[in-house]
Amino acid sequence: MGESTTKFMRNARRVSGVPPELLGVDPMEDDPTARAVQQHQADALSAALWCASAYVMDGLFEDLLGRSADESKAAMTADGTILPFLPRRFARKYDFQFVQKLIVAGADLFARLTREWSPPDCVAQELLVRVLFDHVQFYKDTYGLDLAEDWRSTLARELLVGPGNGHSFGSDESDADLGRCNMTSVEFENWFEPFDGRRLPPYVESLESRGRP
User: What is the pTM of this model?
Assistant: First the structure.
């Protein structure tokens, strides 16, 4: 393992909100060798999650700088660092305020990597988790990380779906489908509406949602 990869792997310890069992470590595995492999893969996945989440947030700030508060929606495009990973059919709606709300939603979501993880609370956060997975793949390729073959479906099952979750995709999708679910079937206007029984940071929820008792 090269020096750069060793330094990268140190980031694994930062992800304290996601236990190894959610990253592919089988607590019932009795074979020490197999258990060691699972733990190493989980550590690599943790490091990639940490670095990918930081990159996504940084990219959202870059995308915000590329927007103007008075820019016409007709001039909007999906160009940028993170916006191209969102459904392109809604590109004209990705205005200054949208990116601001996405930043707050992302900060709320990714903070769970260091706390107790809970699934996304709205469609926008589900989309951000999908974007996160895409960037985990980037770090896997860059550092030649030894991840389990089903790492993406494992993350989708444990981090994205969760018990009783999965509002914008089916929980019975194949590994391949989990990587390219049809998020565009969800109305754009509802992306920042909290799922039933959930709450979002004050800035993210709509005025109507904020007024609910």
Answer: 0.82
